[in-house]
Amino acid sequence: MMNKKRTISIKDPRLQRIRNSLQYIISEAVIKERGELIRENSKLNLDDHREQIKILSDKRDKLDTAWKKSICVCSICGSRTSDMTFNPDAESWYCVKCYQGRHEFYITRARQGEIWKDGGGRPSTGWFP
Asked: Coiled-coil stretches, from where to where (predicted)?
């Protein structure tokens, strides 16, 4: 996994269309697989198939987590057609607009002393410029 912030920005409209199409194909595959897992889960009786239901639920949870942390979708707003920025602290991708809003929110909170550096219990002076 990457260990620093990175923004993937595509300017060429044709490349944007390709990116959006690929993200659409991947999202449709995820939706289809998730639906199949849910249908398979709903066919099982809880009393008789408790272990199988747990396995299916775990598969669905892993699929959801992988989807939400992928570059295909913004972790905050769900956008699938935007340029994305990777947040290494959350290990997730955000659209540029959501990342900027989140970044500004934390800078404001840090300057007001509401966020503490390293959990040390003291206001973070000099943590952010």
From this structure: 39-66
In three-state secondary structure terms, 123 is strand
9: left (phi over 0), alpha (psi -120 to 50) or beta: beta
92 Ramachandran zone, left/alpha/beta (phi>0; psi -120 to 50): beta
Residue 10, burial from CB neighbour count under 10 angstroms (0-12, 13-18, 19+): middle
Task: Write out the DSSP string of 31-69.
Answer: HHHHHHHHHHHHHS-TTT-HHHHHHHHHHHHHHHHHHHT
| Span 6-33, pLDDT tens digits | 899 999 999 999 999 999 999 999 999 9
pTM of the predicted model, to two decimals?
A: 0.68
